[in-house]
Amino acid sequence: MYTQGLDVQKGDVSIPLEQGDSELERRFQAKIDADEKIEPKDWMPEGYRKTLVRQISQHAHSEVVGMLPEGNWITRAPSLRRKAALLAKIQDEAGHGLYLYSACETLNVSRQELVDQLLEGKAKYSSIFNYPSTTWADIGAIGWLVDGAAIMNQVPLQRCSYGPYSRAMIRICKEESFHQRQGYEIMLTLARGTAAQKRMAQDALNRWWWPSLMMFGPNDKDSPHSAQSMRWKIKRVSNDELRQKFVDVTVPQADFLGLTMPDPALRWNAGSGHYDFGEIDWEEFKQVLQGNGPCNRERMRDRNRAHERGRWVREAALAHAEKRRARAAAQTTAVAAE
């Protein structure tokens, strides 16, 4: 949001117009380098604003679309306890989307615009939500692996340089931690159950492992936004570092479950102190991002259908708000007349 046509006042210092942007950019970066938060009313480069809108909106869309593969299992959960926990988890995801849309609105973009972009297929969301949830074990794998990867990504965002985003992530990360534990407990129950249940858990791990690694985005050398996002401290840790940390944490968890990682190249490297793992199929990743994943069209169809079915609720809420506003205005006028 560059200032145009006027001298820029910064504290007690007047910055000449022709020097305004460069001087403000210098001070902006100095503030970030000092680990101070950028707030909505602070000056910021347009590139910083656009990067935040892109990242936060994609995050919000992912929370909303992420409800779909799990919502598919609400009526088929194997017990009342599982049903209640799954309902609570899905409700949390809806709340996360709302927090994030609200954070994005502080950057001069409307929620309606963001939602329209999602429904029209113009906005991206996490590629992993375009994979099907075909068994109950998938709900466990989503909680354990997908939410586990999300936590790995999102904990550093609590230190994001943009205040509203970083503060929203505090509650989101706490709730995602619950989701991850819920998923792991499902996998543990299945792994210690019958032979058929353990096979179902292994099958879910086989199908969700590689898409979970893709959640961290392309390799650092192929990520067009990472370097600048790191400089602005929107991101704090690189894609490859986060992916490696996720592998190092998750492999011992799989060992405890008695499940086998679907990666013949996976092995402990004593020299590096990390697990080596196989090459990700980046062509599959690109295809899913381009709309050619197993459930891309299904997800957009279901999201549009849900949005249309909820239209009457939005219209009723707006009508009620308008009625209250009119009543309050009438009361104010009446009091003034007295």
Oligomer: single chain
Q: Compute the gyration radius: what is it?
A: 23 Å
Which shape, going by the Cα principal axes? globular
- Classify the secondary structure makeup into a structural class: mainly alpha
Distance between the termini: 46 Å
The topology string of helices and strands comes to: EEHHHHHHHHHHEEHHH
Strand content: under 5%
Mean pLDDT over the residues = 91
Q: Can you summarize the main beta sheet? A: 2 strands, antiparallel
Spatial sequence of strands, sheet with the most strands: 1-2
Low-confidence stretches: 1-19
Tally of extended strands? 4
Count of helical stretches: 13
Helix content: 55-70%
Sequence-ordered SSE layout with sheet pairings:
Layout: E1 8-10, E2 13-15, H1 17-33, H2 46-65, H3 67-71, H4 80-105, H5 111-119, H6 136-154, H7 163-191, H8 195-214, H9 226-231, H10 239-257, E3 267-269, E4 274-276, H11 282-292, H12 296-309, H13 311-337
Antiparallel strand pairs: 1-2, 3-4
Helix pairs in contact: 2-4, 4-7, 6-7, 6-8, 6-10
